[in-house]
Amino acid sequence: MTDRRPGRPARAAATGRAAILDAGLRRVEAGEAISFRALGAELGVTAMAVRHHVGDSAALLRAMTGRVFAGIAPSPDGDPRGRLRATLLSYVARAARHPRLMQLTLADPALVGPDLSRLGEALAQDCAALTGDPAAGGHLRDILVDQAHGTILALCHAGQDAAALQARYAATLDWLLDTAAPAPRGGP
Question: What Gene3D superfamilies is this protein classified in (predicted)?
């Protein structure tokens, strides 16, 4: 005898949001479909059970992106240049581990979730502090984000050249940050 209601599928062990996001990340990076039906089949649940946990398709992709970048935030310690460097290098490194997801995310700005939006705001604050000018800081943030995203898109197709590309990104980032910082003013 079973305790489930008629018309309801058997309860599977892995029906939680975390399991769905993990399965979605595995599938997207393997180049497989990430439909609710495909995820449900992999997890042994219905497509509607998947949808119940994650919302619509855009919400699923936003949640997957949020999972990849969870916890990435500038350290409150250190100088703005150091925070910017550490944050952007971490961002690019995480993105490099999920190139197919990043292609989807960068193709649709609506997929940027609140974690990445907050990260963008923190970058803007550090850029303004580094340059000493909020307007210049906004321009610098745009340049740094565009450079990071260009590198991420290149990493999506880099194959064995990924390490060299990441090293070149770090060197270019250092140059941009050094160039953006105002030179100290000498005394009389």
Answer: Tetracycline Repressor, domain 2
Other Cβ atoms less than 10 A from the Cβ of 117: the count is: 10
Query: Which tokens sit at 174?
Result: 């250092």
Query: Which domains, ranges and CATH numbers included, belong to the chain?
Result: 17-55 (no CATH), 67-180 (1.10.357)
Q: Is the dihedral of CA 160, 162, 165, 170 positive or negative?
A: negative
Structure tokens at 117: 């939006």
Q: What φ, ψ does residue 115 adopt, rounded to 5°?
A: -65, -45
Residue found by looking up tokens 């916890």 in the block: 71
- Cα–Cα distance measured from residue 40 to residue 61, given in angstroms and rounded to the nearest whole number: 16
Structure tokens at 110: 């609506």
Q: What is the pLDDT of residues 30-68, one digit of tens each?
A: 988 889 999 999 999 999 999 999 999 999 999 999 999
- Is 0.90 topped by the overall pTM? no
Banded pLDDT at 113 (limits 50, 70, 90): confident
